[in-house]
Amino acid sequence: MLMNSPDASDSTGFPAGEVARMLDRLARLVLRLNTPGELSLTTASTLATLDRSGPCRLTDLAARQGVTQPAMTQLVSRLQESGLAERAADPQDRRVVLVRITAAGRAALAERRRARGERLAVLLTELDEAERAALTAALPAIDALTRLLPDDAPASPGVPVPEPSRH
């Protein structure tokens, strides 16, 4: 249930603060769907970015994931050692190294999604039909919300949020 409070609403009365709190709770739930030994959130997020966006420079990948370049270098090295990603020269500029997901990386990502989907399905059985229908009805809006900041936008507090469109 949304609790509308003065600090939680935007100028239209939409409870943006409460939605943000619920999304935080949802993010924590998603984190808890992991089991020991699975890909970490950072690893999975990095592989998913490479899967969606294609090969990219390590510096760009670090900016997209909101981590430092040295941290991303270490992660990519571990991914490469595990066979989940690889480094390759940019065909346009042989001096530039691109990182790309491998077939094994795609398979690991798909397996993670499958396993998490199974665990989520168990939780969803605890909801009544109306609650499940409400979640299903919200999927297009959640998808639209996630598309407001593109994958190539750096993940940092300094990233400006796009101006709302006037409908």
TrEMBL record:
Native species: Sphaerisporangium melleum
SUPFAM superfamilies according to UniProt: Winged helix' DNA-binding domain
Domain HTH marR-type span(s) in chain numbering: 16-144
Protein name: MarR family transcriptional regulator
One Pfam family from the record: MarR
GO molecular function: DNA-binding transcription factor activity
PANTHER family reported for this sequence: CONSERVED PROTEIN (PTHR39515), HTH-TYPE TRANSCRIPTIONAL REGULATOR RV0880 (PTHR39515:SF2)
Lineage: superkingdom: Bacteria
Annotated PROSITE patterns: HTH_MARR_2 (PS50995)
